[in-house]
Amino acid sequence: MIPMTLAEVAEATGGVLDGVDDAGRLVTGPTAFDSRAVAEGGLFACLSGARADGHDFVHQAVASGAVAVLATRATGVGSVLVDDVVTAMSDLARAVAGRYQGTVLAITGSAGKTSTKDLLTQILARSGTVVATERSFNNEIGFPHTVLRVQDDSDFLVVEMGARGAGHISHLAGIARPTIAAVLGVGSAHMGEFGSREAIATAKRELVQALDATGTAVLNIDDPLVRSMAEYTTARVVWFGTDSEAHVRAEEVTVDTHARACFVLCHGSEHAPVRLRVVGRHHLTNALAAAALALSAGVPFSTVAETLGQVGLLSGSRMEVREREDGVTIVNDAFNASPESVAAALESLAALCADGRPSVAVLGEMRELGDTAAEVHRRVGRQVAELGIGELIAVGSEHAQTLAAAAREAGAARATLVATRDEAFEVLTSLLRGREVVLFKGANSAGLFETAAALASWARPQARPS
Question: CA 194, CA 70: separation in Å to the nearest integer?
């Protein structure tokens, strides 16, 4: 964290110092909300959850190097007492961001935020020091946690912004005002909360509206709902995509035998061939967004093109490919699932099996789709059949049943319904003979990423805590 005294922390959060001997003591480390992750010189945020209360771990946090804790009640250790710890984290992050002199790059979209962030972070690292969102910590807790890790000498701050309702992105952008902001696309994720793709677009548009005239809006020209966002900003607009009008575009796009996108990256008069290391043609959009963001931040074109062809994804369970000794390939894309990402993953599976290898799709139910859920699962079932996927294992209850039934009706060779991921594991252990490619995809709550990891090492998954 950019150094602040405890007195300044209290002022920024509207808090009161309690049990603090030296109000001038500096906080130099980030704010942690897990006592096991406390860094020397940082703060510990006493969050209260369903399973634990951070106030019960203050002594461990201080012993691990915390200067003080953010708390709502006296703790017996040096504390900044506030009315609400989550709000205090945002207020403190806002104060830190106000002192930060580097470039803030923000990313939102219905899918691809974390993958784009992973690619972008590695490109920017070739030109300076980077602080970026860890994994998918992009909500009202994870966002300030990221901002509070920034230092005076950090050249770039890369943040993801998630939204589950109107005003969420505006709130996050008010904590750390972006210099450069990208909208990747508008899909059907969280339809249950928003009600329509147009409402989702309005929420994502808040990021573009947060830019001032000196900023840069990086927009997906191939998505009509994103393209229309240019009307809502005074910032400079940089288009990315495959359209000929895009400032940063891909030409001559193909997919190799490993389902990786190959293309010519173009920007102005510059162009270079790129072969991505990440699996799935859909990562082309993420790569172009990362390129456009990096170029807008001043990274040379040659560095961008070279790095894109060398790096992979840093966050797990996103088209993560592992091959077993018996020839079975596990594709773990089970961090989460939206209608668009499931469709893209299935297309990648089909591409990986274009050489005749047997294909298996283990699909968990998708969540937060509202009234569209049944039809969306039917559509996925039909796609399984249309792509010629050899084996479908649908995991869950009502919607999994809908998915499996639709696949059978559309002519899928085999479609098995199981209630739990453990049952899916049992089916797979008896099914696999070698050479199969097995895709795992589903809502995060289904835990199929654990099953994928277990199958990759041929170990039974551990029971999930209740």
Answer: 33
The number of folded domains in the chain is: 3
Model confidence at 461, in pLDDT bands (50, 70, 90)?
very low
Query: Are 292 and 419 contained in the same domain?
Result: no
Largest pairwise CA distance in the chain: 73
Q: Is 316 helix (H, G, I), strand (E, B) or coil?
A: coil
Distance CA 348, CA 368 (A): 24
| Domain span at 60 | 4-84
In whole angstroms, give the CA distance from residue 112 to residue 392.
Answer: 25
| Whether residue 4 has pLDDT greater than 90 | yes
What is the pairing mode between strands 329-332 and 320-323?
Answer: antiparallel
Distances (CA, A) of 214 to 121, 130, 208: 22, 22, 12
**Do residues 163 and 108 lie in contact, with contact meaning Cβ atoms separated by under 8 Å?**
yes
For residues 297-311, average pLDDT: 98
- Tokens 């147009």 -> residue: 198
How many other C-beta atoms can be found within 10 angstroms of the C-beta atom of residue 304? 29
* CATH number of the domain enclosing 12: 3.40.1390.10
Return the closest-CA partner of residue 207 out of 166, 262, 155, 251: 166
Q: Does residue 93 lie within any of the structural domains? A: no
Total Cβ atoms within 10 A of residue 76: 12
Report how far Cα 94 is from the mean position of its chain's Cα atoms. Answer: 22
Q: What is the pLDDT of residues 381-395, one digit of tens each?
A: 999 999 999 999 999
Measured N-to-C along each axis, helices 283-296 and 301-308 cross at an angle, to the nearest 10 degrees, of 150
> Does 396 lie in the same domain as 283?
no
Domain check: are 141 and 271 in the same one? yes
Residue 221: CATH number of its domain: 3.40.1190.10
Helix (H, G, I), strand (E, B) or coil at 336: coil
Predicted confidence at residue 60, as pLDDT, reads: 95
**Do 109 and 235 sit in the same domain of this protein?**
yes
135 CB-contact burial (10 Å; exposed 0-12 / middle 13-18 / buried 19+): middle
**Ranges assigned E (strand) in 109-246:** 130-132, 156-160, 180-183, 216-220, 236-241
The answer to the question of residue 185 being in a domain is yes
Asked if the structure places residue 425 within a domain, the reply is yes
pLDDT tens digits along 50-89: 889 999 999 999 999 999 999 999 999 999 999 999 999 9
- pTM value is 0.91
Same domain, 277 and 166: yes
Same domain membership, residue 48 and residue 77: yes
Question: In CATH, what number is assigned to the domain containing residue 361?
Answer: 3.90.190.20
